[in-house]
Specification:
Bound molecules: pyridoxal-5'-phosphate
Strand order of the largest sheet: 8-7-6-5-4-3-2-9
CATH superfamily of the largest domain: Alanine racemase
Number of helices: 11
Largest sheet: 8 strands, parallel
CATH topology of the largest domain: TIM Barrel
Order of helices and strands: EHEHHEHEHEHEHEHEHEEEEEEEEEHH
Distance between the termini: 8 Å
CATH class of the largest domain: Alpha Beta
Number of strands: 17
């Protein structure tokens, strides 16, 4: 796997260009979407306004790596010990559930910021929007909120620009926090890109994740359509080349049969490395800059490709599975999943070559 810090910074600049004047929480949860959380933080230090992770453990790993920028913890703190860690390490946790309030009541620590999440229609995390005012009254004098009580929400259908739920959620959020002080954050990558988030126009902070790594989350698009650059390129060597006679079957289950004489190559990557097992015959890979189809089932450590289109390919050549020249969205589409899943599943065995 190769990672491009330049591409990561370029994509952050794109996120800023889509949402001028807003501050950016660069989302680097889930090990930086598979790229390495500490690596992503180092590459974006001085470029992002802060970093966003899921849980306190991730935030502590950032602090241990020397990251001093603001850190937003999307799932917030659960236990008293976690609230305490947030205070000691200057983290900004999200408060999203009644169960957290009980623990918070006994907590006297200060925080650089406390974010309240409102559930405006996704029905995952957050308080009912009608509770915003009550929460504000209850928490405004709490030491945890003294240095800032802020508001966020998350949209369920941002990747579908015309989905009616987007406007509904934005309206609920705007209405709920209209009279309240504090900063706001609404937009993930999809909303940043669609720019249609009129309701997030007044939000000071965006929260882009996937677009920083290159893919577009919008239905039917690839990152290139939005001038985003792939950060991760996954390659593997060709370790065998052979000629198959017509009628020869390939791989487990013998699911692919050569119609004519076929030059086939074996690539040293499989589902144990994070390549999707469900990628069907026909899923593209790149050899010498040309697309070749996967043939047969993906194995644990290997997959096979049809090399008829690249007669000069030999053992030792590099095959690109996704990244530079081959958008990960295409592989995700073929395998019936999304770019997020492929990136976050890349396994440790793929040696990082920086
Ligand atoms: C993961 C996440 C994001 C980033 O989403 P992308 O689609 O990757 O841009 C933003 N906000 C919240 C609450 C998230 O969980």
């Amino acid at each position: 796997m190769r990672r491009s810090a330049g591409a990561l910074r370029h994509n952050l600049a794109r996120a800023r260009a889509f949402a001028p004047g807003r501050k950016v929480w660069a989302v680097i949860k889930a090990d930086g979407y598979g790229h390495g959380m500490e690596w992503a933080a180092a590459a974006l230090t001085g470029h992002a306004d802060g970093f966003s992770v899921s849980c306190v453990e991730e935030a502590l790993a950032l602090r241990a790596a020397g990251v001093s920028a603001p850190v937003l913890v999307l799932q917030g703190a659960r236990t008293a010990a976690e609230w305490d860690l947030c205070s000691r390490h200057g983290l900004q946790p999200v408060l999203h559930d009644e169960a957290q309030l009980a623990v918070l009541a006994d907590f006297r620590g200060e925080l650089p910021g406390l974010w309240i999440k409102l559930d405006t229609g996704m029905h995952r995390l957050g308080f009912a929007p009608m509770k915003a005012q009550t929460l504000f009254q209850r928490l405004r004098d709490h030491p945890a909120a003294r240095r800032g009580l802020h508001w966020l929400t998350h949209l369920a259908c941002g990747d579908q620009i015309a989905h009616p739920q987007n406007a509904e959620q934005l309206d609920r959020f705007r209405h709920a926090v209209a009279e309240l002080p504090g900063q706001r954050s609404v937009a993930n990558s999809a909303l940043v890109i669609s720019g249609g988030a009129a309701g997030s126009a007044s939000a000071e902070w965006t929260r882009p994740g996937i677009m920083l790594y290159g893919p577009s989350p919008m239905e039917g698009e690839v990152g290139r359509d939005r001038a985003l650059r792939p950060v991760m390129t996954v390659t593997a060597p060709l370790i065998a080349v052979k000629t198959l006679e017509p009628g020869a079957c390939v791989g487990y289950g013998a699911t692919w049969t050569a119609e004519g004489s076929t030059r086939a190559g074996v690539v040293a990557i499989g589902y144990a490395d994070g390549y999707p097992r469900h990628a069907p015959s026909g899923t593209p890979v790149l050899v010498h800059g040309r697309e070749c189809p996967v043939i047969g089932r993906v194995s644990m450590d290997m997959l096979e490709i049809d090399l008829n289109g690249v007669p000069d390919a030999v053992v030792g050549d590099t095959v690109t599975l996704w990244g530079e020249g081959l958008p990960v969205e295409r592989i995700a589409d073929a395998a019936g999943t999304i770019s997020y899943e492929l990136l976050t599943r890349v396994a440790g065995r793929l040696r990082v070559i920086d």
